[in-house]
Write a structure and sequence with these properties.
The chain contains two helices and four strands, in the order E-H-E-E-H-E. With 77 residues, the protein is of the alpha+beta class. The structure holds iron/sulfur cluster. Iron/sulfur cluster binds next to helix 1.
Length: 77
């Protein structure tokens, strides 16, 4: 389960986030490219660059959360 106390700093404010357990597999970016991006400075990891604004976008973020192999994506909404 993702932990909001260890969010990566690049996440934009809002319910969805990536925490620092991310192993940079890029599955979330493949699943929801309108919401997740990789950053390759220092330790590579994903982050949320755009929060969902409708049910379709929430579904995409939920799919990414389900795809994450290490449960590094959280929904604090
Ligand atoms: S799916 Fe999970 S582990 Fe893979 S890049 Fe995204 S947040 Fe990181």
């Amino acid at each position: 389960m993702a932990d909001k106390t260890i969010k990566v700093p690049e996440n934009v404010p809002g319910p969805y986030y990536v925490d620092n357990e991310c192993i940079a597999c890029e599955l979330c970016v493949d699943t929801a490219p309108a919401h997740f991006k990789m950053i390759n400075d220092g330790q590579p990891h994903a982050y949320v660059f755009k929060q969902p604004e409708n049910d379709q976008e929430k579904d995409a973020c939920d799919d990414a959360m389900g795809a994450c192999p290490v449960d590094a994506i959280g929904d604090d909404g």
